[in-house]
Amino acid sequence: MAKDLTAQAAVGGSLHAWAASFETRAQLDRAVDAFEAAARRVVPQGPVREFLLGRWLGHSLHPALTDLPLAGWTAASFLDVFGSVEDRPAAERLLVFALIATIPTAAAGLSEWTTTERGARRVGIAHASLNGTAALLYASSLAARRKNRHGAATALGVIGGLVALASSYLGGHLSLELGAGVSSAPQQAQEPG
Hints:
By secondary structure, the protein is mainly alpha-helical. It has helices spanning 2-21, 29-42, 47-53, 62-82, 88-113, 118-146, 150-177. It has one domain.
């Protein structure tokens, strides 16, 4: 039992070190600066940005939206691997849904990214790059399905899922370790004690 916990701690420590390593990678600063300029054009200050930050919701919108593409991609891959030929149309519809859901999810993430500091922005660039890669793999999976290349579609989807999993870990690091999105919601008043 203690040996298992030690192994788990080693894996967790390695993953944490990997995620944290992006915070200090100055070579990402050119990408951060370019992304920042694009973000100002795509989600300028105003009501759309406030909506995407989730101020109306009481907490950050991005984490809630991530469930949509991730669920669609995961369910499609599950049907590909464990389903039958009859499940292929459902898997394709799930992929279409998930790819469409990436648009508001990415917009909310970009809005949240603009509220972070330099180290978190570097992690965010890696997170966004992995998410973009996952979306491209799933879009390629969709294209392969439409050419009746189910084996390739399945492989692309599974690889996309693994990339999305790595990206999700970085997203968790952004929120839980660096506080991204934590302050984008209004603070609740403390009741007198």
